[in-house]
């Protein structure tokens, strides 16, 4: 797909991502998060092993979620490549969020 080793690409919000490709879709975690006809419409960034979605109920402007594509019960269960992709995606998306919202810092939280 032309992503490079861990690189990703930004896509238009609203560009569909098959729900079967999304973390949590298999067990219904994202069922209520904008799934339309089996697709997730809030995906705006995609890397081979992670992706970012717009939060449907943001806490603050710019609140987004960066998620690994594979469902695992614990962060420790991700492979090194998956962790690298996840953190690289957080960094890439974070840089854009800072520019778009004029921020000079980010808050990154990990929910496991």
Can you tell me about this structure?
There is one protein chain. With 112 residues, the chain is of the alpha+beta class. 20% of the residues lie in helices and 21% in strands. It has 1 helix and 7 strands, in the order βββββββα. The chain has one helix at 80-101; strands spanning 9-10, 17-18, 35-36, 39-40, 43-47, 50-54, 64-68. The strands form 2 sheets. Strands 1-5-6-7 form a 4-stranded antiparallel sheet, with helices on one face. A hairpin with a 2-residue loop joins strand 3 (35-36) and strand 4. The longest helix has 22 residues, at 80-101. The chain is globular. The N and C termini lie far apart (29 Å). The model is unreliable at 1-6 and 12-37 (pLDDT under 50).
Q: Could you name the key traits of this structure?
A:
four-stranded antiparallel sheet, three-stranded antiparallel sheet, alpha+beta, disordered N terminus, 112 residues
